[in-house]
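[job 0417] fold request received: Fe-S cluster assembly ATPase SufC
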Amino acid sequence: MLKIENLTAEIDGKQILNGLTLDVAAGEVHAIMGPNGAGKSTLSYVLGGRPGYEVTGGSVTFNGEDLLDMEPHERAAAGLFLGFQYPVEIPGVSNVQFLREALNSQRKQRGEEPLSGGEFLKLAKEKAGLLKLDMGMLKRNVNVGFSGGEKKRAEMVQMGILDPSFAVLDETDSGLDIDALRVVGEGINSIMRSPDKAVLLITHYQRLLEVVKPDRVSILAKGRIVRTGGPELATRLENEGYDAVMAEPA
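[job 0417] inference complete; emitting C-alpha cells
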C-alpha cells in the first residue's frame, strides 16, 4: 500500500532522512520506534506534505500513485490521514463545523456527494461513541481548552469520520494516562483494523503497542530504518534500550 524507497529529506538545509526504505502492506499495523532525533516526526511530515520539509531524493508511492507529486489535500482525499503529536487549536471554529467541511471537501475531491447536516451528525455521534467522547465536546472550538487526552480522542474521532485507508499516527500515546491510552488504542483498532487499511504507528514506548498490536516493528535511527522484526522487537527495546539492540548484528 505504501512503498518508500531511498527517501532523503531536509528541513532548513539540514538533512534528516538519509535513504529511508520501508514497505507497509494493506491490513498491516507497522510500528516505527527510535531514539530522539531519529527522524520519526520528519517522516510523518514528509508523508503528509507539510511545507518546509524538502524531499531531496528517493520515492514514495501510495496505492501505486506518486505520493510526493500530490498536494496535501490531494493526499488526504486519496485516503492518507496524519495524526499529530501535538494537535493544534483552532479558536472560533467548532469541531462539528471543521469536521463536516473537511469530510465534504474530501468527498468533493473524489467526486462524491456531500453529506447533509443530519447524515453528518449521525456519523459523528457514532465515531465519538467509539472514543467515549461526549458530543458536547464536538460542539466546542477545535481543541480549545481540551486536555491532552481529549485532544487525542478528538483527533481519533476525526480519523473515524474521514475514514482513511492509511493512517500515519505520530506519537498518539503522548500525554495519555492509562485509561485514555486504552480508549484511544481501542479506537484505532475499531477504525483502522481492516484488510484494506493500514497504519504507520510512530511511538517511543511499547505501552500503546500492547493495545494496538503491531504486525511489524522497525527501528529508525539517524534517518534510516536499521532493523525490522516482529512485535517482540518492541518488547526488547523496552527492556534493553535502543543502544543494546542496535549494537547487535542485523
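[job 0417] notes: Residues 2-247 form a domain with the Rossmann fold fold (CATH 3.40.50.300). The chain has a mean pLDDT of 89.
[job 0417] exit 0
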